[in-house]
Amino acid sequence: MLIAGWSPVGRRSARADRRPVNPACRRVESSSLSLLGLVRQVAGVEEYWFRRVMAGEDVRRHYRSVADPASDFTGAVADPAAVADAWATWRAEVAFADGLVAGAVRLDVVGQGGEEPLELREVLVHMIEAYARHNGHADFLRERIVGRVGRWGEFVGRKWMGGAGASGAVSPRSGSG
Q1: Are 111 and 53 in contact (CB under 8 A)?
Q2: In this structure, are residues 112 and 120 in contact, taking their beta carbons and an 8 Å threshold?
Q3: Hey, what domains does the chain have and what are their CATH numbers?
Q4: Could you read off the pLDDT of 94-117 as tens digits, one per residue?
Q5: Are the C-beta atoms of 86 and 40 separated by less than 8 Å?
């Protein structure tokens, strides 16, 4: 029932703002949200859930500090070295997570997240939710920057949602959504 329990969470999130329509229709003001910031953010998400919670490693957070908890975004500058670092960090954290999952005998392996022990299956479901949110943010940014968004089917090798297969190409947004 773990997976079924996440659908209501997403639905509650979608209807969270019940204020009148006008405020919800306004354009967003300038923010520190960026594609590079999202890469840095998900590298930290991978690191937290797999290294800290599941593996029990006490590691320093990549892009966060007590002084600036949002430095994954505020520190995301248009510098080739910062971009390369963010991607290398994300790839390393994904490789660690993939290795941990591949080495797990069962999905009920327990890690310590806060006060409650968490099973690996709970962390994996949370990661699906986290990437869904972050990829949605990335799609909005990509659409604003280049007029295109990523398509799920392209990345899993299927032609879902009008994707072009496993080519890795990004499709222009169609009127059908």
Answers
A1: yes
A2: no
A3: 2-14+31-146 (1.20.120), 149-177 (no CATH)
A4: 999 999 999 998 998 999 877 889
A5: yes
